[in-house]
Design a protein that fits this description.
1 helix, ATP/GTP-binding protein, mainly beta, 4-stranded antiparallel β-sheet
């Protein structure tokens, strides 16, 4: 049996909407519904060299770590948020982040 060959697709073949990028060369953007609003989600390789704060876990995303950027579909640049991939996936299961003192009761 000969090995499998991965040949590039022909340039004149039509792309499906699932595999074509929506943002004109910015990667594979997709639209997801969250809290009754459409959000644009874009995966990022993490090569910007900047630190970001994930709103899902309130932890820092260091440079070089892959993550996602999400913003409301009709929002502006200031509405973009950088999330860990796992935090974005679990956003429906997470409750509100309650800040407590070190010795405060958990009830």
């Amino acid at each position: 049996m000969s090995p499998r060959r991965n040949r590039p697709q022909r340039a004149d073949s039509p792309e499906s909407p699932e595999t074509s990028g929506v943002g004109g060369g910015y990667g594979l953007e997709r639209t997801e519904d969250w809290r009754g609003e459409d959000w644009v989600v874009r995966p990022v390789a993490g090569s910007a060299g900047k630190h970001y704060r994930c709103p899902g876990c309130d932890q820092e995303i260091p440079p070089g770590v892959g993550h996602v950027v999400a913003w409301p579909q009709f929002g502006g640049v200031d509405d973009r948020r950088h999330w860990h991939r796992a935090c974005w996936t679990a956003r429906e299961r997470r409750g509100a982040k309650i800040l407590r003192g070190r010795n405060a009761p958990r009830h």
